Amino acid sequence: MDTFLQDLRIGWRGLARTPGFTAVVVLVMALGIGANSMVFGITNSLLFRKTQYFDEQRSVSLYRTIPKQNERRSEWSMPDFRDVRERVKSYEAIGGFTGWQAYVTLGREPERFEAALVSPGLMRVFQAPPVLGREFTTLEEEKSRALGVVMISERMWRERFNSDTAVLGRTLKVNGRVREIVGVAAVNFRYPDNSDFFVPLYYDPTEDSREADYIDIVARLKPGVTIPQANAEIEAIAADLSKQYPRPDAVLSARVASFREEFVDDVGPMLAVLMAAVGFVLLIACANVANLLLARGAGRQREIALRFALGATRGRIVRQLLTESIIVSLLGGLFGILLAVWGRDLVLSSIPLPLPFWMDFSTDPNTLLFTIGASMLAALLAGLAPALQTSQVDVHEALKEGGLHGTSGRGRSRLRSTLVVAEIALALVLLTGSGLMIRSFLNMANQRSSVKTEGLMTGRFTMPIAVYASQESKLAFTDGLMQQMRALPGVEAVSAIQALPLSRNAWNRNFRLDGDATGPDAPRRVTYYSIVRPEYFKTMGIEMTTGRDFTALDDSTTQKVAIVSETAARTLWPGKDPIGQRFNWGAEDTTGWKTVIGVVSDVYQHIEGKRPPVTIYVPHMQDPQQTLTLVVKHTNPPGAMIGAMRRTLLARDGDMPLYETRTMDESVTFALWENRLWASLMSVFATLALVIAAIGIYGVMAYSVAQRTQEIGIRMALGAVRKDVMGMVLGQALKLTLIGVGIGLAGAYGMTRLMASVLFGVSPNDPPTFVGVTLILAFSALLAAWVPADRATRVDPMVALRSE
């Protein structure tokens, strides 16, 4: 320990004597280690970090699966949930829920809150007893809408009710129904979806169909029960239910999965790509630092020779040099943590959605340990080879030179060149991955350009079922609202749709064509579908390619009609005129056949879609929905238009808020935020790698020019001109670059195949991307070598010859 402390003191004094060199090395290390620390911290928080209410071994989700559709995470119907709850034996608690929206007036105007319809027992799954009052404990609350009760989150109780213990028994108007507050949920418990209000999940045997899948099931395993055991039980129950209540369109199964699985499935591939990217950044940083340490070691040849002459062993010298590497790596790790925190906060601030309540991205011990480990690994990777190389010194030759110049030696030159080649190869792999992500994002954005955005304002509203239960009341309210909106100054057109394009709110539904076989051999057909008002396509600028639009006459008293997308027309009725074709919503559809009256151009419904989807539109007048999104074409300033829309809605119903108010351009941007974030992160890491690699090339060329000053002077004295010297130096840089590019292209060809699942509209081995990043890297390398090359041409032959 005494020797180690002595090494630290000596190393620190040596680094302090060269502050410029130390600052550069620490900065490079901080960038590499900081990027790794940031991405690891985010990955750890999403996939591995323990949370307050989730037990990794016992908290599970129960999914219904549809093998025929390759669907692994489907919801359950309310009747099936009740059957599962009665039959399972492996769980000590089980609950069901579905996401909801609560519209509550707590101040001057109504507000929209995230909420959930939950079954009795849901909070027992998470062992989250209320801090005040009770949870829903009786099945009577599941059977009757008349029992108007509500629970609120602890956050809501604290922020909006000032933690008043007299809140129990108070009444609130929630979605048009007066409800009594019976409990306050556990501290920080807002499951699911950051819910602030919890209402009993209602069951009506006359309304709830076994084909209406909208319930998510969560459960807590009994002690000693494993996930495979619980999985076998739920598969058997699902098989029995499938036999007892066969569906005409699918054979169903089920499975049990830990809560983490869905997050791993959703973000795991992209996080793996990011971890690989920052790993490359760290390797490039280590290679760069190793080159800097080699350059520094070349100037310490006389010092090392004197140490040997005084009796130091090679092992002692190597240890001392490694200690210096450890010091700069730990300093880099310290500043890297600060960079990681800053970068993490910047990434989180760019997310336009509230984060789930259970996510905690604060720096934890695991992230600190990872950073320390990365620092030590970086010290070894960056310091070992230079330490071994520097300790190989000819004592007699070094002492004879009198300390004026060190000698580089062929071995050291080869090592420096090898490190530069490695930097270039790694940078090219990372640049290629970044280029593919950017191309993927641009393709996604361009292919969504069918949605016109200019002069369009949108906003959602929900008609509470307690007030607007009948079709007549919903239609009367919406018809009146449309008329008032059209009368607003600056408004050119108004319509509405159940789910905007790209909003992720589009529904899918099974359907059957007229003429399809029935029974087990019936074809499986699924479509996106949406409910629209008349003039929606005109307002949105979506082309009607054939047929006609919906009108106010397409109501419940007339023939059921529909409009389909071009892809639907081409896919469902190839070679036929789609106008007049018929379909229905399956064997149990009691509303009758729908007739196609028009075809419109394709519009993407989900941002992740690889191809334009099969989409069917039906008129709101024939299928009124509680929630609609207004689409207003106008010439007003956006802020003024939002205010006018909100005032118009409140004038018709003072308890109904207008929410998710955005311009259509903002809606499209919002839909792309996640893909933009991934592409931006990859671009930042790739740019960082490119800069570090360019610094490495500059360092090698500058050092080479310094070592060859006498040679260059002799060449110029013998008649070499500027062009010859410039070509010699740039030629050396180009040679290293070409070797690095060749190795990097081979590595990129293999590595980018792992990105296939996260790319859109671009091949993992996309030729334009490979060519483009190669040219960028080659140009950057030659640009980095230009300054040393230019310096070489300015050598004075007489000064160079006298230098020895």
Automatic annotation (TrEMBL):
Membrane protein topology class: Multi-pass membrane protein
Main location: membrane
Keyword Transmembrane: yes
UniProt subcellular location: Cell membrane
Keyword annotations from UniProtKB, A to Z: Cell membrane, Membrane, Transmembrane, Transmembrane helix
Every MacB-like periplasmic core domain range: 22-237, 419-628
Coiled coil: none
Domain of life: Bacteria
GO-annotated cellular components: plasma membrane
Chain segments annotated as transmembrane: 21-42, 270-294, 321-342, 368-388, 419-442, 677-704, 725-749, 769-789
GO molecular function, one term: transmembrane transporter activity
PANTHER family attached to this UniProt entry: ABC TRANSPORTER PERMEASE YTRF, MEMBRANE COMPONENT OF TRANSPORTER-RELATED
Full protein name: ABC transporter permease
